[in-house]
Structures are given as C-alpha cells and as structure tokens.
Amino acid sequence: MATSSKSLSEVRGDTMRTERTISKELESGSTSVDDEELESGSTSVDDEEEHVLNMKEIFITDNEAKESLLKIYGQVIQMVNELPKELLTLLSRLYGDVSSKLKMNATLVSEKCKLVVAGESNSDMNSVINTVLGSEILPNPHVLSPGTICCVHTVPSNVEGYFVIQMTNGSSERYSYPKVLGAFQGLLSDKMKGTMSQRIETYCHLPVFGNTDSVTIVSHPGGNNILPTEFMESVDDASILIYVVNSACSDGIQENKLMQMCKHLQSDARAGNLNSFDPKCIMFVCNNWDIVEKKERSDPGAENRIWKEIVTKIQKYFPGISEHDQIYKLSTTEASYLHVLWKNSSTF
C-alpha cells in the first residue's frame, strides 16, 4: 500500500488491554465533543502469519494482567485492614470505607475477556471478525432480521456446542452447533426462514483462543446512524472494541456514531466508573480498502486523501487514538489471504 499505515494483518498483541485505566483525554474531559457543542505498509508472509496467529497470546496476556492486578488488590486490602485504628479512622474520614471500596473494585476485574464489534452500515464487519478468528462464526447479516445482535461464547473442545435464536416475540429455539466445519451459516439460514430474530447466542469451541470458556464476542448491527443502547452498555466491561469503517462509502465516515461513542465514554469516565472502557483499546478497521486503491488509479491522490479524512475525523473525537497502532486498512484480497492462512495453519 502507498501509505505507511499498518494493515490488519499487522495487529500486535499489545492492542489488547492489560489493565483497566481511564485515558487522560476522557478523565480530563478534553475530547472535542464538548468544544463542538459550545461552538454550535506492507509485511512479509512470515510476519503476517505470526501476527494473525497471535490471538491466543493476546488472551493469555490479558488473563495474566488481571491475575496480577487481583494479587495487588489483595495485598492492599490486607495492608489497609492491618493499619492502626487511628490511621484507619483518618482514612475513613477522607475516603469513606476504603476496604469495602477496594473489595468492590476487585470484583470488577473479571476473568472474562469480551470483544465488542460495531461498525457502519454496509461495513461487512462480521466478515472482518470471521477473518480474524479464522472461522465463519458470526452470521451473515443478510439471513438475520434487522437489528439482530450476535453473541459468541467460547467453550472447551470437549463441550457440545449449540446456538439459541431469540425471537422478537420473546420465544427462543435451541439447536446443536454443527460439527462439520463451515456448516453453521447454512444451518442458521435454514432455521431463520419465516422467523424474526432479536439475538443469536452461539456457544462453540474456537481454537484461536485455546481451550477456554472465558471469551465472549458481541457483534452489534451497523444499521442506521444511531448506536443502540445495548452497544453502549456492552462496551463498558469490554476488553477491546473493534469498530469497522466502510472505506468505500462515498459519504465518508459516519461521524455521528463517533460522537455518540465519545460522549458515552466521556460521561462514563467522569462518573468515576472503574470499569469504564479505555479508548486506548479501540481498534478501527477500514474495510473495503481495495476499492479505495482502485479509485486511486483513476483519481491520483484519492487514497491518501480518503485515509487522512478518516484519521482526522476519528482523532477529532478521540485525540489519543494512534494512526499507526489503532487504525488499520483491510482489503477484500487481504481478507481472503488471511482466511486461507487460518485454514492451512497447523498451529491448532
């Protein structure tokens, strides 16, 4: 690619949060939403394969960081409980029941790892995640009712998988997850005929995360220009948020959704919510970049112009977002190549 920015295949393990911190820009309220309202690279094949197969290491690192944090909480709680009565009384006057607050905060450090996916209309975000995971686990939106939320929960390899279709009328149906590789999409399509879905809950083994039941993936529909309440709620305790941009859209990036995300995270941080999401753990994926590259041939400079426009609008609402470490390009060709890498890998 012409620019020096990373492609999705270069995603490093350090994109996953290893501890929950509140970003400085949100903590201080320095994001530009408030101001606005007041006024009105290429890599080698070996490198690509190494990075694509790094998801399991990311998950392990995340768990290790949480275990370390819980040990620290335990040590601090013990230290507070052993303080002389006079110091403990003074501490309580200044900060309230410190011991209870520490215990409550420790319970918020969940061993679960949640990956939340959202995106723009027609961004094909489920396909992007399926590529990263090396499995057609997230349904094709065309077989689902509009607004359907998809959740995937990992299970150990010795546990029978299944999926549940929750209907808009409140009823639900449970089915066995197919053992044949790649058969899930067809089976779901058959079961969806004549039904109106609201949510799809899938429980299956994903080798990319190892033999665990601690990973959850939540995919919210692109839909219209408004982010649903369910998305805002699910982001709060997420380990990572992947937001997929439709690079080929002639109208440019959907700025309204960026503003909604920024305002939600900003208000959450100001409320002092320890479990609030850290914007450093957002990954923006610019899908359909091959279409942008084709446009470059007939309109020289278009690729760089579109890239700068996307980066500028993202950083307008998230000033701390790194162009080089948190915003990636993905083309249809690259997605197909990465999918082949997964299928042919002997790692799992």
TrEMBL record:
<feature type="region of interest" description="Disordered">
    <location>
        <begin position="1"/>
        <end position="47"/>
    </location>
</feature>
<protein>
    <submittedName>
        <fullName>Uncharacterized protein</fullName>
    </submittedName>
</protein>
<feature type="compositionally biased region" description="Acidic residues">
    <location>
        <begin position="33"/>
        <end position="47"/>
    </location>
</feature>
<dbReference type="InterPro" id="IPR027417">
    <property type="entry name" value="P-loop_NTPase"/>
</dbReference>
<feature type="compositionally biased region" description="Basic and acidic residues">
    <location>
        <begin position="9"/>
        <end position="27"/>
    </location>
</feature>
